[in-house]
Write a structure and sequence with these properties.
Elements lengths: L2 H10 L3 H18 L8 H4 L9 H12 L7
């Protein structure tokens, strides 16, 4: 008897509420085992929009955003 057949046999012997618990656990295990798609970089996301942002543009935006933020002394 294969593992799949053995598992199915035991699941069928359980009451419906326990079968539901097994299903939820299997779904949990499945989600953990699924490989996640690598996230795309922002540059890749806007590549077709003809946006050209340099490191200096980002640094300037940070200075503008955080320039007035109080610093600990």
């Amino acid at each position: 008897m294969s593992i799949e057949e053995s598992v199915l046999e035991k699941i069928r012997a359980l009451p419906p509420e326990k079968q539901q618990e097994v299903l939820e656990f299997v779904e949990f295990l499945y989600q953990r085992s699924v490989t996640k798609q690598p996230s795309r970089s922002l540059k890749g996301l806007w590549a077709d929009l003809n946006v050209d942002i340099t490191e200096e543009d980002i640094a300037e935006a940070r200075r503008e955003l955080w320039g007035g933020f109080p610093r600990e002394v």
